[in-house]
């Protein structure tokens, strides 16, 4: 049966754009680091603002909801395991509607990449290098992103394998050092304001870490074994969720719900509380390194997928020709995306979760539904 909206020649050309392969283990590591991503630093403040001391319950509810969405995303990947999402759109929706859906999806990835560049620049310029112009931070960070774009998917995946043990070691050290600061009374009383604040707090807890994994559908065909990818996708998200729930709980237990909700980077402030014998203190560099690792991996993958998707739609033979233009566009867009930190906070807490749900929940449901209708109609 002849494929709808995309020819076999087009499929073959798409294969040429990315000839590399990554292992299932590398894929799971990428899922874990991307899900942790920017959430490990900023996530505790948002459910705490809604649910107060019950924010940890919002984190758990967000994890359970997020895993269901991740399973749905994995189901989309199983429809055509040899095709990435750009090709799936064309095959399921047809040439015209598939192209429109792909352009909108690439716009979603683009805005995510811009947001990641913006947030790491804000963090570096306000917390670590306050006298450094934010544009200089943009250039430094995007220079590394440019290198990852030129080297390709395999190199990013191998770098993630190297980063993972360091992340785990630093995270365990952070938790261990914070145990003496824990105050169980900070969690009381339970459900002081009812269940509704917990539900509202769970929305962002589900969207930012888990629903934003939908761009990984672009790399499903480039994993060595595709038959069990859904299981590994869910596993990576689960491990990331455990880390994030622990960070939310620690923020409440150590800082308190009120201080956590009013702090832009509660996890970073949390690390500042470490004090053992007045000798081991101010270990916030641990959190900074962990966050830079996860944001770098997430930003690199998202920018790479944007490069790959654009190259497919433009029918280019080499994705690397887009690397430099994309870096310049991201550098220019990062400031325009949010002129100040107030507007950035408004974007992330007001409409961004619904933006995520449009592409991470509605699009997969639509793909599965249209695919089922086409099979029933014999198309």
UniProtKB/TrEMBL annotation:
Tagged with keyword Amino-acid biosynthesis: no
**TM spans (from-to):** 27-49, 55-80, 92-113, 133-151, 163-182, 202-223, 235-257, 285-309, 321-339, 351-373
Q: Which UniProt keywords apply?
A: Germination, Membrane, Transmembrane, Transmembrane helix, Transport
- What family does this chain come from, according to its entry? Belongs to the amino acid-polyamine-organocation (APC) superfamily. Spore germination protein (SGP) (TC 2.A.3.9) family.
Example of a GO biological process term:
spore germination
Annotated Gene Ontology cellular component terms: membrane
UniProt-listed Gene3D superfamilies? Amino acid/polyamine transporter I
At the top level of its lineage, which domain of life is listed?
A: Bacteria
Regarding the membrane, this protein is recorded as: Multi-pass membrane protein
Task: Give the originating organism.
Answer: Paenibacillus contaminans
Any single Pfam family the record assigns to this protein = Spore_permease
Signal peptide from the UniProt entry:
none
Q: Where does this protein reside within or beyond the cell?
A: Membrane
Q: What is this protein called?
A: Spore gernimation protein
